[in-house]
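pinned: reference chain
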Amino acid sequence: MTSTTLAGCVSYCRVSKEESENTASLATQAERNAKFAEAMGHHIDVTLSDDGYSGGTLGRPDMRRLLASLEAGRVTAICVFHLDRLTRNLRDLLRIVDLCKKHNVTLLSVNEKLDTSTAFGQAMLHMLGVFAEWQRNAIGEKTKASLAQKKANGAVYCKTTPYGKRKVGRKLVANPGQVAVLEEIREQRAAGLSLRAIAAALNARREPSAFGGQWHSGTVHKILAAQTAA
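pinned: its C-alpha coordinates
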Protein backbone atom coordinates (compact mmCIF):
# COMPACT_ATOMS: atom_id res chain seq x y z
CA MET A 1 0.00 0.00 0.00
CA THR A 2 1.42 3.41 -0.93
CA SER A 3 0.98 6.64 0.99
CA THR A 4 -1.49 7.94 -1.64
CA THR A 5 -3.99 5.17 -0.83
CA LEU A 6 -4.37 6.15 2.83
CA ALA A 7 -7.82 7.58 3.50
CA GLY A 8 -10.56 7.63 6.13
CA CYS A 9 -9.98 6.90 9.81
CA VAL A 10 -6.41 5.86 10.58
CA SER A 11 -5.20 3.87 13.58
CA TYR A 12 -1.56 4.67 14.37
CA CYS A 13 0.58 2.47 16.66
CA ARG A 14 4.22 2.74 17.75
CA VAL A 15 6.65 0.86 19.99
CA SER A 16 10.30 1.87 20.40
CA LYS A 17 13.15 -0.54 21.08
CA GLU A 18 13.57 0.81 24.62
CA GLU A 19 9.85 0.49 25.39
CA SER A 20 9.26 -2.97 23.92
CA GLU A 21 8.81 -4.59 27.34
CA ASN A 22 7.14 -1.68 29.11
CA THR A 23 4.28 -0.60 26.87
CA ALA A 24 1.33 -2.12 25.04
CA SER A 25 2.24 -4.19 22.00
CA LEU A 26 1.37 -3.02 18.50
CA ALA A 27 -1.42 -5.61 18.33
CA THR A 28 -2.88 -4.47 21.65
CA GLN A 29 -2.71 -0.82 20.61
CA ALA A 30 -4.46 -1.58 17.33
CA GLU A 31 -7.23 -3.52 19.07
CA ARG A 32 -7.83 -0.80 21.68
CA ASN A 33 -7.76 1.91 19.03
CA ALA A 34 -10.41 0.13 16.98
CA LYS A 35 -12.74 -0.26 19.98
CA PHE A 36 -12.34 3.34 21.10
CA ALA A 37 -12.82 4.73 17.60
CA GLU A 38 -16.02 2.72 17.20
CA ALA A 39 -17.31 4.03 20.53
CA MET A 40 -16.64 7.57 19.29
CA GLY A 41 -18.57 6.93 16.08
CA HIS A 42 -15.67 6.09 13.76
CA HIS A 43 -14.54 2.97 11.91
CA ILE A 44 -10.83 2.24 11.40
CA ASP A 45 -10.05 2.07 7.66
CA VAL A 46 -6.25 1.85 7.84
CA THR A 47 -3.85 0.67 10.59
CA LEU A 48 -0.29 2.02 10.56
CA SER A 49 2.53 0.76 12.80
CA ASP A 50 6.11 1.87 13.43
CA ASP A 51 7.97 -0.90 15.25
CA GLY A 52 11.25 0.03 16.96
CA TYR A 53 11.12 3.79 16.37
CA SER A 54 11.59 6.57 18.92
CA GLY A 55 8.88 9.15 19.55
CA GLY A 56 11.48 11.92 19.52
CA THR A 57 11.29 12.35 15.74
CA LEU A 58 8.64 12.19 13.03
CA GLY A 59 11.07 10.49 10.64
CA ARG A 60 9.36 7.10 10.84
CA PRO A 61 8.11 5.19 7.77
CA ASP A 62 4.42 4.96 8.64
CA MET A 63 4.40 8.35 10.38
CA ARG A 64 5.63 9.90 7.12
CA ARG A 65 2.79 8.12 5.30
CA LEU A 66 0.31 9.46 7.82
CA LEU A 67 1.60 13.04 7.52
CA ALA A 68 1.53 12.87 3.72
CA SER A 69 -2.06 11.69 3.81
CA LEU A 70 -2.98 14.39 6.32
CA GLU A 71 -1.47 17.10 4.12
CA ALA A 72 -3.32 15.67 1.12
CA GLY A 73 -6.61 15.98 3.01
CA ARG A 74 -7.39 12.27 2.76
CA VAL A 75 -7.74 11.49 6.48
CA THR A 76 -10.96 11.97 8.44
CA ALA A 77 -9.75 10.88 11.89
CA ILE A 78 -6.66 9.54 13.67
CA CYS A 79 -6.80 7.24 16.67
CA VAL A 80 -3.84 6.44 18.94
CA PHE A 81 -3.51 4.43 22.14
CA HIS A 82 -1.66 7.30 23.85
CA LEU A 83 -0.58 10.72 22.56
CA ASP A 84 3.08 9.83 23.03
CA ARG A 85 2.61 7.13 20.37
CA LEU A 86 2.37 10.02 17.89
CA THR A 87 5.33 11.95 19.29
CA ARG A 88 7.09 12.93 22.51
CA ASN A 89 7.98 16.36 21.15
CA LEU A 90 5.57 19.24 21.77
CA ARG A 91 6.52 21.08 18.59
CA ASP A 92 5.84 17.96 16.49
CA LEU A 93 2.57 17.33 18.33
CA LEU A 94 1.41 20.89 17.62
CA ARG A 95 2.34 20.41 13.95
CA ILE A 96 0.11 17.34 13.79
CA VAL A 97 -2.67 19.16 15.63
CA ASP A 98 -2.44 22.11 13.22
CA LEU A 99 -2.71 19.74 10.26
CA CYS A 100 -5.74 18.10 11.86
CA LYS A 101 -7.40 21.49 12.36
CA LYS A 102 -6.57 22.63 8.82
CA HIS A 103 -8.15 19.54 7.26
CA ASN A 104 -10.96 19.07 9.82
CA VAL A 105 -9.50 15.79 11.14
CA THR A 106 -10.57 14.45 14.52
CA LEU A 107 -7.76 13.23 16.80
CA LEU A 108 -8.71 10.45 19.21
CA SER A 109 -6.60 9.04 22.06
CA VAL A 110 -7.64 5.95 24.01
CA ASN A 111 -5.61 6.53 27.18
CA GLU A 112 -6.52 10.20 27.56
CA LYS A 113 -10.16 9.63 26.48
CA LEU A 114 -9.47 12.45 24.04
CA ASP A 115 -11.68 13.69 21.23
CA THR A 116 -10.45 16.90 19.61
CA SER A 117 -13.77 17.52 17.88
CA THR A 118 -14.73 19.21 21.18
CA ALA A 119 -13.33 22.45 22.65
CA PHE A 120 -12.46 20.64 25.89
CA GLY A 121 -10.57 18.00 23.93
CA GLN A 122 -8.48 20.64 22.17
CA ALA A 123 -7.53 22.36 25.46
CA MET A 124 -6.70 19.03 27.07
CA LEU A 125 -4.54 18.08 24.09
CA HIS A 126 -2.33 21.14 24.52
CA MET A 127 -1.83 20.52 28.26
CA LEU A 128 -0.98 16.86 27.71
CA GLY A 129 1.49 17.81 25.00
CA VAL A 130 3.35 20.11 27.38
CA PHE A 131 3.57 17.33 29.94
CA ALA A 132 4.78 14.79 27.33
CA GLU A 133 7.69 17.05 26.34
CA TRP A 134 8.59 17.66 30.00
CA GLN A 135 8.67 13.90 30.56
CA ARG A 136 10.95 13.40 27.55
CA ASN A 137 13.35 16.10 28.77
CA ALA A 138 13.35 14.63 32.29
CA ILE A 139 14.29 11.20 30.91
CA GLY A 140 17.10 12.81 28.91
CA GLU A 141 18.45 14.57 31.99
CA LYS A 142 18.34 11.34 33.98
CA THR A 143 20.26 9.50 31.24
CA LYS A 144 22.93 12.22 31.11
CA ALA A 145 23.31 12.12 34.90
CA SER A 146 23.68 8.33 34.82
CA LEU A 147 26.37 8.53 32.10
CA ALA A 148 28.22 11.25 34.00
CA GLN A 149 28.24 9.10 37.15
CA LYS A 150 29.58 6.10 35.21
CA LYS A 151 32.34 8.26 33.70
CA ALA A 152 33.28 9.62 37.12
CA ASN A 153 33.49 6.08 38.53
CA GLY A 154 35.53 4.81 35.58
CA ALA A 155 32.77 2.41 34.52
CA VAL A 156 31.96 1.41 30.93
CA TYR A 157 29.37 3.93 29.74
CA CYS A 158 29.11 3.25 26.00
CA LYS A 159 29.45 0.41 23.48
CA THR A 160 32.53 1.92 21.81
CA THR A 161 35.61 2.24 24.00
CA PRO A 162 36.65 5.93 24.06
CA TYR A 163 40.05 6.70 22.56
CA GLY A 164 42.60 6.85 25.38
CA LYS A 165 40.84 4.11 27.35
CA ARG A 166 40.66 0.31 27.37
CA LYS A 167 38.16 -2.06 28.95
CA VAL A 168 39.12 -4.20 31.94
CA GLY A 169 35.99 -6.11 32.91
CA ARG A 170 33.32 -3.46 33.50
CA LYS A 171 35.86 -0.69 34.08
CA LEU A 172 37.58 1.74 31.77
CA VAL A 173 41.26 2.33 32.48
CA ALA A 174 43.87 4.47 30.73
CA ASN A 175 45.49 3.19 27.56
CA PRO A 176 49.02 4.64 27.94
CA GLY A 177 49.89 4.63 24.23
CA GLN A 178 46.68 6.36 23.19
CA VAL A 179 46.89 8.82 26.10
CA ALA A 180 50.29 9.94 24.77
CA VAL A 181 48.83 10.41 21.28
CA LEU A 182 45.92 12.38 22.74
CA GLU A 183 48.28 14.72 24.53
CA GLU A 184 50.26 15.17 21.32
CA ILE A 185 47.08 15.98 19.36
CA ARG A 186 46.03 18.57 21.97
CA GLU A 187 49.46 20.23 21.89
CA GLN A 188 49.56 20.34 18.09
CA ARG A 189 46.05 21.77 17.91
CA ALA A 190 46.91 24.40 20.54
CA ALA A 191 49.97 25.31 18.46
CA GLY A 192 47.69 26.08 15.52
CA LEU A 193 48.04 22.95 13.37
CA SER A 194 45.01 22.08 11.26
CA LEU A 195 43.07 18.87 11.81
CA ARG A 196 44.22 17.68 8.38
CA ALA A 197 47.89 18.32 9.19
CA ILE A 198 47.61 16.44 12.48
CA ALA A 199 45.97 13.47 10.75
CA ALA A 200 48.65 13.48 8.03
CA ALA A 201 51.44 13.41 10.63
CA LEU A 202 49.85 10.45 12.44
CA ASN A 203 49.42 8.57 9.16
CA ALA A 204 53.02 9.30 8.15
CA ARG A 205 54.36 7.44 11.15
CA ARG A 206 51.69 4.72 10.86
CA GLU A 207 50.04 5.48 14.19
CA PRO A 208 47.03 3.13 14.63
CA SER A 209 43.82 5.03 13.94
CA ALA A 210 41.16 5.54 16.58
CA PHE A 211 38.44 3.89 14.48
CA GLY A 212 40.49 1.66 12.20
CA GLY A 213 42.05 2.50 8.86
CA GLN A 214 43.68 5.87 8.23
CA TRP A 215 43.49 9.01 10.30
CA HIS A 216 41.29 11.78 8.88
CA SER A 217 40.54 15.34 9.96
CA GLY A 218 37.09 14.13 11.06
CA THR A 219 38.68 11.44 13.25
CA VAL A 220 40.87 13.99 15.02
CA HIS A 221 37.88 16.31 15.46
CA LYS A 222 35.74 13.54 17.01
CA ILE A 223 38.47 12.64 19.49
CA LEU A 224 38.99 16.24 20.57
CA ALA A 225 35.24 16.83 20.82
CA ALA A 226 34.80 13.71 22.95
CA GLN A 227 37.53 14.86 25.31
CA THR A 228 35.89 18.28 25.64
CA ALA A 229 32.49 16.71 26.34
CA ALA A 230 33.98 14.40 28.96
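why pinned: The domain at 3-140 is CATH 3.40.50.1390 (Rossmann fold). The chain has a mean pLDDT of 82.
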